[in-house]
Amino acid sequence: MRIRFFSAQKYDREFFERSNAAFGFDLEFSESALDADTARLASGDDAVCAFVNDTLDAACLQELQRQGVHTVAMRCAGFNNVDLQEAKRLGLQVVRVPAYSPEAVAEHTMALILTLNRNTHRAYARVRESNFNLNGLLGFNLHGRTVGLIGTGRIGVATAKVMSGFGVRILGYDVFENPAFKELGGEYVDLDTLYATADLISLHCPLTKDNHHLINADSLAKMKDGVMIVNTSRGGLIDTQAVVTALKSGRVGHLALDVYEQEGDVFFRDLSDEILADDVLSRLLTFPNVLITGHQGFFTDEAMTQIAEVTLSNLDAVNRGEECDNEITAQV
Ligand code: NAI
């Protein structure tokens, strides 16, 4: 089986080549993102392996099929960038990695919260310049605060577990209740109650057509003044322009993002020699109370190893004609 990787970075090659020792597939790596134009690179490949910012729309999937591809392997959990209806129509199999170290994302969520709250990123830069002044570095105790988690699946529960050590009250909102969340002391509430009560809101739900811009001017108006918002899920959950307005008014006191709705144009690249064309992102980068990382929640040794092993196991099952538990199909 020949598998072409798109959006491939050096670390993808390292982890996948290591795991491939057990499978012996023919792996081809392309740095290009996958879209309708680059799909031609998959000429003669059996499968493609894509990532979070590839564009697997109808035109792309049709081109992949023309090139002879029969399987799309997503090396991530989310699949909001895949037109599943079209994949189904074309008979393309789509597989993914539903769960890989939810702790990796939960721990990154916590790193963002602690860094942003206690300003360790700013303190680090100051101290290196021999500036030991504390002005502007004031934080707040997490202990005794109320945290609201939107999405209480694997990552939401892993986050609740870490959070519970800080002595916070944990509220949750989900379309399905998860007993594991309640066992940790989490309390389910409706969204409006969560907005009105939480000092810190962290997003852990997938992006679907129903929750695009879940955080918008209306929901922001329902939140506590000075609320901290954390998004390690998908950028499209937040109307970034509305959050910029709320940051300027002080309604949002802190914002931590590992994902951004227009991240496809910038993340995973070194643009340090270029002029940033995205004015909203440029504005966000000017706020002292905004912390942005470039979609690295998943980026631990353990998670990368699991991603590579599960992706190649998925493809192995497809190759052998066996049923793959990690196949995703359109719900029609
Ligand atoms: P999961 O499937 O275990 O849990 C998602 C939860 O969200 C489920 O309980 C589901 O019922 C709930 N949900 C669905 N729609 C909702 C809505 N409209 N409102 C509230 N809850 C809703 O998924 P998991 O593993 O916890 O991942 C969550 C998300 O995290 C993924 O969809 C992905 O977008 C993101 N992610 C980000 C990574 C990063 O590197 N920053 C890495 C991995 C995942």
From TrEMBL:
Pfam families per record: 2-Hacid_dh, 2-Hacid_dh_C
InterPro entries recorded: D-isomer_2_OHA_DH_cat_dom, D-isomer_DH_CS, D-isomer_DH_NAD-bd, D-LDH-like, NAD(P)-bd_dom_sf
Span of domain D-isomer specific 2-hydroxyacid dehydrogenase NAD-binding: 110-297
Recorded superkingdom: Bacteria
UniProtKB keywords: NAD, Oxidoreductase
UniProt KW 4Fe-4S keyword: no
UniProt-recorded Gene Ontology molecular function terms: D-lactate dehydrogenase (NAD+) activity; NAD binding
Listed PROSITE patterns: D_2_HYDROXYACID_DH_3
CDD domains reported in the protein's UniProt record: LDH_like_2
Domain D-isomer specific 2-hydroxyacid dehydrogenase catalytic: start-end pairs: 7-328
Protein family per UniProt: Belongs to the D-isomer specific 2-hydroxyacid dehydrogenase family.
Name of the protein in question: D-lactate dehydrogenase
Record organism: Aquisalimonas asiatica
